[in-house]
Amino acid sequence: YEIRGSEAVVGETGPDVMDIRTQIAAVGEHAVGLPILRVVLRDRWSNPVAERNFNAFEYAAREDLPADELLQPNASLAARLSIIDPGSGAQGYELELCVPYRDKRLQCSGQAFK
Questions:
Q1: In this predicted model, what pLDDT tens digit does every residue of 16-56 receive, in sequence order?
Q2: How does pLDDT run across 83-105, given as a tens digit for each residue?
Q3: Which is nearest to 14 in space by CA: 77, 102, 85, 69?
Q4: What angle (nearest 5°) sits at the alpha carbon of residue 11, between those of residues 82 and 57?
Q5: Are 84 and 32 in contact (CB under 8 A)?
Q6: How buried is 57 (Cβ within 10 angstroms: 0-12 exposed, 13-18 middle, 19+ buried)?
């Protein structure tokens, strides 16, 4: 997976709401399951102030999701999240893609997109 571009806008869809938009792309040679999108909000010193994982049904429009829930090679999926504005304590954010394993743990890319 790869995150291609990202932006956050406060107040676009409502007062006290932060909207984050990005593109998630499959960069391998095989179809892959839809990843978990982790959002980490950071303060001005880059310390985490909040973190949450979102599944594909939370970050993508249902009509944009593939019927088989697989992202084909070289395909991308628009992701959009609307979260309550965290206020002035959060000065930045990072996005990371994670894959769930059967034992319920997540394997994340380890490369946050800032």
A1: 888 999 999 999 899 999 999 999 999 989 899 989 999 99
A2: 987 777 888 899 999 988 777 68
A3: 85
A4: 10
A5: no
A6: exposed
DSSP 3-state of 97: strand
- Distance separating alpha carbons of residues 38 and 98, to the nearest angstrom: 7
Rounded-to-integer distance, Cα 46 and Cα 114, Å: 11
Distance of CA 10 to the CA centre of its chain: 17
Residues in the chain: 114
pLDDT above 80 for 109: no
**Long-range contacts of 46-52, Cβ-Cβ distance < 8 Å, separation of 24 or more:** 46/92, 49/86, 49/89, 49/90, 50/86, 50/90, 52/83
